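Re: beginner question about structure tokens

> Can someone show what the tokenized structure looks like for a real chain? I only ever see the sequence side.

Sure, here's an example I had lying around. Input first:
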Amino acid sequence: MDDRVPVVLYGGGMRGRQFFHRLHARGVPVLAFFDANAAEGARFFDRPVYAPQAIPTHELGTLRSALVIITLQNAGIHEEVAGLLVRQGFTKLLYLPLTGDRFHDEADALLLRETYLAYTGEHGIRGMCTVLPLTEVRPVEYTEHLILEESGDFMIAALPLDLLATDGRNHAAESYVHSPVLRLFSFFSTGMGDLTTIEESFHAHEEEFGYLLQKSFCEYVNDRQNLYSRFTAALGDGMKFFQTSPAYGVWRDGYFAIEDGNHRTAFLYEKNLFFAPVRVTRDDCQRWRNRTVADRIIRELPDETAARIFFWHPYANKSLIPAMQADRILLRFLLILERRLYDKESECLLYRLPKTRGFAVFFGFPPVSYPMLALSMEGYNVLAYFEEKQDARAAEMFFSLYYQDIAVMQKKELPCMPKLLVVTWDCFHAHAQGSAPFRCHILVLVDIPEGQGPPTWLLEKKEILRKDCIRANGHYYIKAWEMN
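And the corresponding structure tokens:
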């Protein structure tokens, strides 16, 4: 969020007051609170509180220029509230996501799907002229909730703008804030800037924009101004145009390079929107998801915990191992091997999921969170047991992000025999081809027949006897580990 933009908070309850403290700490000017039950003359934190139907006439002009953040928990009245505000002339509205009172550091919770729905008008608010989301908040986990449309090998995803970059060789992976197109669009919007300087920036990136500059720069500026006007008119009707004519992006190991649609994307950036519809391949979207979630957990967990945690190639990506689909392989683990200490190729553990359903009990050392999530999605009742309190807390943190109803507890003894037992340990030394042994963690899934206990070899933790290298696709080599 631009800290210079004034804000009005709709809702004087606990959630609204919590969010006031967050904004106030950042220096964001909070002008007032709106509350349907406000008494005349009421004040919160030395700010006036107005009932939406009784806003003083002399205050309307100032308050209409502010961003109204609706902090109400009751989704059923959001549309009614927004409609009331729109009728009173408020055009900049934002819903906080309806995911409970979770205020993670750096406003993570604001990046859920509800934020996107708010400014696209999908909540059914037809009278809004413009709805702006909060900006300048750190990206967090992005999942299929931001997928707008799927077709064959491609999908249209609402990607955060700070994840996008122009494809020009001279400034790949840089922010759009350095783009000559954005500078030109800002000039159209504000009238501020110098066209001579902007022209120089285009010529500095001639490899990317040279084909556009075959005409005179004056002709080019006139052409782009007409384009900017068309984009502005389209945005007045919401995001429909940008969703039906999205940019095209390619994953470049950390960002999406926009190969087609730079002007559309720069326009959305200039308008302070947080997301842009981008057409990407399913594989690229999966790589982005894997990278984002892995980086998030590694960043937030202590180093010693992050170095021993399992990550999973999500089950939704069935194309990961096409030749093995018939085997119903569910769990695809990407094991991060001492990522903080070494820059090694990651090993991956595959094991066939039994066809039975029932309880899946996790017992062992590292919090293997993604496999738990996968089994929960497949209909298993998942229980997670950890001997160390810090491991249980790490697992609780993970599941709180995904709002999964999974029981996490600390327990010393082995639980009662389930249908599926998952045991982990970290005493095995794997040998990477052509390199010295290094320490890693082993995870084993065992289908326990009813009335029987774990096999002897599992209780004795015998080491893996054989491993086969399997070509998965053009990006990963995955090893299938087999137990004796």
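Each token stands for a local structural state, so reading them left to right follows the chain. The chain has a mean pLDDT of 58.
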